[in-house]
Write a structure and sequence with these properties.
- It is built from 6 helices and 4 strands.
- A 4-stranded mixed sheet has the order 1-4-3-2.
- With 199 residues, it is an alpha+beta fold.
């Protein structure tokens, strides 16, 4: 059986021809469009842009919204903004503290996690919202990973489910997680307020 042949080389150019009259001329096509590119090594990207003699609109600098970034204009008018987050805290440190709290022989795991939560609260009071958010997210994520509060439901065996075990050291952990999530909500609200007021 013969199959019809689809000649994309004829179809695609024809499609573009019908749209060509609607396109802006080169240099104007991207006007008013800004594209943010999150990168891991902003200094290397900036050096590459300089070597390529790119049209750098604003030089590399640090900004109050915890970003190190610069602006470069594409030949078609697009404004590109390579950016790298500036973290005041290192998640690895707090991840280790959470792991230690689960491994220590203490009556309540929340006792070992309290110092981590207090560090996040202190940063939030100082308006270091990115740092506080990083710690809260680390707390919640690691508790999800290491506790027995959040588990996948077991498959049903012979018409019954296995009896759920009780872990007394995890008592109060669910309320602790809820408090962290509520604190994250407060941080986001405060950050929006600060941005709208220009603080």
């Amino acid at each position: 059986m013969m199959r019809p042949v689809f000649n994309w080389q004829q179809t695609i150019p024809h499609t573009w021809e019908t749209e060509r009259s609607h396109l802006l001329p080169p240099g104007q096509r991207g006007s008013g469009v800004e594209i943010v590119l999150l990168v891991e090594n902003i200094d290397a990207i900036y050096h590459q842009a300089q070597q390529a003699e790119a049209d750098i609109v604003h030089p590399l600098a640090e900004y109050p919204w915890h970003m190190r970034q610069f602006w470069v204009r594409h030949p078609d008018g697009y404004l590109l903004r390579p950016a790298q987050k500036i973290l005041s805290v290192h998640p690895t440190i707090y991840r280790r503290q959470v792991a230690d709290a689960f491994q220590r022989d203490i009556p309540r795991i929340t006792q070992g996690l309290q110092a981590v939560k207090e560090a996040a609260e202190k940063l939030a009071q100082q308006r270091d919202y990115l740092g506080a958010t990083t710690i809260y997210e680390t707390l919640v994520t690691e508790i999800f990973e290491q506790s027995h509060l959040y588990y996948e439901e077991e498959a049903e065996y012979d018409g019954y489910y296995e009896e759920e075990e009780y872990y007394p050291e995890e008592e109060g952990l669910e309320e602790f997680v809820t408090a962290c999530i509520e604190a994250l909500g407060t941080i986001f609200a405060n950050e929006r307020t600060d941005r709208s007021s220009g603080a």
